[in-house]
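Office hours follow-up: a student asked to see two folded examples consecutively, so here they are.
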Amino acid sequence: MIRISVWGRALSDSYLKQMTQLGADCLDFNSGTAFPGMKEQGYPDLDELLRIKKRVRSWGLDMNRVTLPDITEKFMKDQPGGEQELENTCHALRVFGEAGIPIARQRFAGDVFPDLMTRYRAVHRGGYLSRGESLALTEKRSETPTLEELETWWSRFCDVYRQLVPIAEEYDVKLAIHPSDTPNADTPLGCLGFHRVIDAFPSKNVGYLYCIGTRAEVGGSALVLDEINNYGRKGRIFMCHFRNVRGSLATAQAFEETLLDDGDMNMFKILLELRRIGFDGCLNPDHIQPIEGDSPGVSLGLAYSIGYIKALLAALAALP
């Protein structure tokens, strides 16, 4: 069954109550330091993690996805302290496995080329603002890594996954990698590099946190539908970031994020394709735009997004 996950950034009773009332099902944790123990010792404290999980469950919510401690440039460039990062993330995955967390994401430094893009605030209907990025507007583009440098990055990535995958298999945790965002050409986890992950690690526990918005930034809905079909029939889409965009690097050398109904993609068609390939994970409406009337602790954009997805799921269930 497809469910809805939201961010677990705030764990106050008010927030958990609000998410339950809106109809969310699960929480996702997007920071490598989200849990007690991570900042102090480099990995989460199991007892504290279990207490958090129990509290989340008391509101009828599940913990869907967590983020492992970051792999920074220290490890990726073989600097002092890098091996400790690998040790910490392996220890963290064991702790999450013992706690019964189903999905874990690992972040890697160097998977994007941030200096290529000119960033701006895009204005949409009624004046709501969103993230916009343009390659075309960038006059002086920085040098991107050479093939040799990209292969070195990939070698270090594989060093990490060779340690993580056996742990994921032992505890039956799904390792979900997110695509490079911004998805410029030759980013390590872009159109070609994203494929390499499951080619190199054919374990059923290795797959994708498939970000619909990020992949649409490359080539729109046609690319998204093709990739869902490709990765989905292999059983490698573990969850989705569910968001819409206007434009793409292919069509405009730029893109702008939008509310779910306000971009180029028909999100119901995306959902139909997910159903066709048997997807049964969570949809997370990430990158929520602020809307007039928002206040601390209250995101109207999030409430709108949850309601929109629930309506799509109801329409999907009504189909034969």
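And the second, which I mentioned at the end of office hours:
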Amino acid sequence: MKKMLSVLLAAALSVSVLTACSSAPAETTAAQATEATTAAETTTAAPETTAAETTAAPETTAAETKAAGDDVVIRVGGLKGPTTMGLVKLIDDASKGEAENNYEFTMVTAADELTALVAGGKVDIALLPANVASVLYNKTQGNVAVIDINTLGVLYLVSGDTSITSIDQLKGQTVYLTGKGATPEYSLRYVLSAAGLTEDDVTLEFKSEATEVASVLAENPDAIGLLPQPFVTTAMMQNDKLSMIMDLTEVWDSFQPEEGGSRLVTGVTIVNKTFLEENTELINTFLTEHEASIAFADEDPATTSELIAAQGIVPKAPVALKALPYCNIEFVGGEEMKEALSGYLNALFEQNPTSVGGALPEDAFYYIP
């Protein structure tokens, strides 16, 4: 695993993103990602992680039941948001010594922090915004691979005006949103264009934080905002005049062909390719455990919400419980993952090539077990 540090530090001479929704905004532009990687190159230590941010698996409490290679600790990094909500059951299992692999988990609040951990060789696996994964692939000359999609779209149009039920009805309207030059903007512009609307038809009013969009909606419930979960749920709990008038994921899907096509993707899971080549069986086991953990979130949302709150991803379990069904936490792997993600990245690339690192990833980007 020591190879990972030298490979990424040498390759990441520059690293250029998306909303990874959390209890605080985690929007990153390509330029910010570049700065994060540059910082990782010039420091010898990873960003400091508090005890509350890090959950480490105990040292082989169930060593007798683990297969060969149980001395390998897989370092997993995630964001405090929907992309990591599906991981909490595995984090809990690992803390009890019940996971098949040995894991060490680290959670941070912003995508650029996690990018720095990847570039600095401090994690083997990372749950990242989809376009950031593509940026890293390009900037490390192919030294990362995507192994699954962990979260589909988490963006919703919110308003007190429930008469708006289709994307073409946004003509002549103003939409308040965050994420200028990032995925929220690209995703909205994609569906607007697919509906036949031009840039002149809809005014996009950008705010620096999701809380500012929520404030606009609080003052004028008939305004229209584009918000990620769990901000949507929080805003609606604070203002009963607000409703989710459109799920951007469903709108995106409505413009796809009956078979195939892209998906609106929020988060993916990547692995350092050197680590993957040296520990393929462990990564395959992780995929099995990750899929089971995500399935548990759907089967037992109440327990999952408690685990989400315990990890500090969402402040309170009741908020997590209400937001969870709308976070589109889903495990997508193999060929289905490749088709959905490549189509999504292509949609971003057509709007702004730098959003995916200047070029679409090659087939080697997609790990198909």
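Two things to take away from it. The longest strand covers residues 144-152. The domain at 2-153+264-365 is CATH 3.40.190.10 (D-Maltodextrin-Binding Protein; domain 2).
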